[in-house]
Amino acid sequence: MSSTATEPKEEQGAEDAPLTDGFHLVIDALKLNDINTIYNVPGIPITDLGRFMQAEGMRVLSFRHEQHAGYAAAIAGYLTKKPGICLTVSAPGFLNGLTALAHATTNCYPMILISGSSEREIVDLMQGDYEEMDQLAIAKPHCKAAYRILHAEDIGIGIARAIRAAVSGRPGGVYLDLPAALLGQVMDAAAGEKSLVKVIDPAPAQLPAPEAVKRALGVLKDAKRPLIILGKGAAYAQVDDDIRKLVETSGIPYIAMSMAKGLLPDDHDLYAGAARSLVLKESDTVMLVGARLNWLLSHGKGKQWGTEPKKFVQIDIEPKEMDSNVEVAAPLVGDIGSCVSALLDGMGKDWKKPPADWTDAVKAKRDSNVEKMAPRLLNNNSPMDFHGALGALKRIIADNPDTILVNEGANTLDFARSIIDIFKPRKRLDVGTWGVMGIGMGQAIAAAVETGERVLCVEGDSAFGFSGMEIETICRYNLPICVVVFNNGGIYRGTDVNPSGGDDVATTVFVKDARYDKMMEAFGGVGVYATSPDELSQAVTEALKSGKPTLVNAVIDEKAGTESGRIGNLNPQSVVSKK
Ligand code: ADP
Ligand code: MG
Questions:
Q1: For the segment 70-90, what is each residue's pLDDT rounded down to a tens digit?
Q2: At 364, which CATH number?
Q3: Helix (H) or strand (E) holding 227
Q4: From ligand 2's centre to the CA of 411, what distance in Å?
């Protein structure tokens, strides 16, 4: 199991006990804990660490920019419930990875950012070292926990702490600082092996209190118009069968937050996604399962939620989440698996389903909304509009439900979220809690690497720009990823004009008729230029069949799209200048 460093051993001569070093202790500690995939950008002082990792049989994927290695690690954590590892160089590389670490923490994804760092003695006296920075201090506010290891004999315990911090309780990002000198430190190989720690039960079950379960069931029993909201915490928990059983046994209509789509198939009889406005407004009782009442749910109050007071039941592993925005009548603190099975036990066989006038009204509204939308999704306009293009992709996902959909953009995100149905758990990966742009290629790469499934990455042209260079990474590892760039020539739209009449184009506008497909060809992948839903459909079908790295440049009408997609209301308004 344990590997020994060859160089120090040779220096010592044959009769001496074998030695190991910091590099190999890090590798052995990770492998002992079943961590075998690393997302990294090589450089000083971690280039050799990546090389040795690969030599020791780990999968080490090198990116072109740390932010994307970080987003890959973060979503790997979400998909696997093990911390995704991002490995970076010091100062600038560390800072590039830090956005992803903060994103992982915000989204409750387990991730460890491991960064090499410069010599403590010089950093702490601010004497101007190569890439000098007090990384530990800078990381702290952006993660669940931050640690630095100074001695080789502490590597085992340091990595154990990082793993446990990332996955236990509410998952999140952890920073681990490895000074260059640590990696070269030498110690006796046998003592080194003994110093390693295999983390036992890293994310222990957290049982809800029996009274809390009873209280929650009481609130649900009294409800006349109940609603369940599934969030990505529920998807993360990987207790898919029990969640389905809970929804079906309760008979309560549900909606799914974007990454919880597919936990139950989007064509489920109790799914109220297409009646979202109605159920938020009209429900009298809402049970949140691994979803927070943050901005994505208008904080649980205001116009969207109607005028009648509502009772909330909330399942969450984080006690501080309760009453975060509105009063929670029945907090159920514990891990989702334990909470859901306790509720199921309590419901028993003769649980009374909600009144039919409520469930019927929800289904009627849903069906009429779906019917209204249907013809728009069948148009074959050229250039495409969002509905025509996404209608084509919706049909492809329905035929290929194992495909993982990665999605970012403004209009591209908002329309795809509601148009493309998802049929299996954890098949939709998007911008998450922050609505961050730039997750695209990193998440697509990790999704392909961690699951072996085909990945369809639906990107606004602006969103794609943040991580576009990583298509070289996709080609280099020959990953089965099809990127579709919804190219409307700009941010939100391609039609804005410079209000001053000057020579520069408007701030939101890109090069006209950009050929993103040619970027893919430059790296040996397949590039397709598609101007109609039929062409788009053909190209994506072919890409999913072949598994070849593909980029489809989907030409969208530059007039299609609205300011900031569906969240234009979050823009402040100026009283001085009017748009
Ligand atoms: P969404 O964006 O889908 O609404 P959020 O990220 O807002 O999802 O909410 C996820 C919630 O799930 C967080 O409050 C987190 O604490 C919780 N959570 C994550 N994993 C678990 C788990 N295994 N058990 C219980 N709650 C969890
Ligand atoms: Mg655009």
A1: 999 999 999 999 999 999 999
A2: 3.40.50.1220
A3: strand 226-230
A4: 8
Q: Is the pTM of this model over 0.90?
A: yes
Average pLDDT across the chain, whole number: 96
In terms of domains, do 538 and 557 share one? yes
Q: Most distant CA pair in the chain: distance in Å?
A: 84
Q: Is the CB of 291 under 6 A from ligand 1?
A: yes
Q: Which ligand is nearest to the CA of 485?
A: 2
**Separation of CA 339 and ligand 2 centre (Å):** 42
Measured from the alpha carbon of residue 106, the closest ligand is: 1
Residues 102 and 128 in one domain: yes
> How many residues are recorded in the chain?
579
Q: Same structural domain for residues 37 and 150?
A: yes
Is any ligand 1 atom within 6 A of the Cβ of residue 30?
no
What does the H/E/C string look like for 124-188? HCCCCCCCCCCHHHHHHHHCCEEEECCCHHHHHHHHHHHHHHHHCCCCCEEEEEEEHHHHHCEEE
Handedness of CA 529, 535, 541, 546 (dihedral sign): negative
- Ligand 1: atom nearest CA of 433 is 2
Strands (E), 41-92: 59-62, 84-88
Measured distance CA(475)–CA(134) in Å, rounded: 36
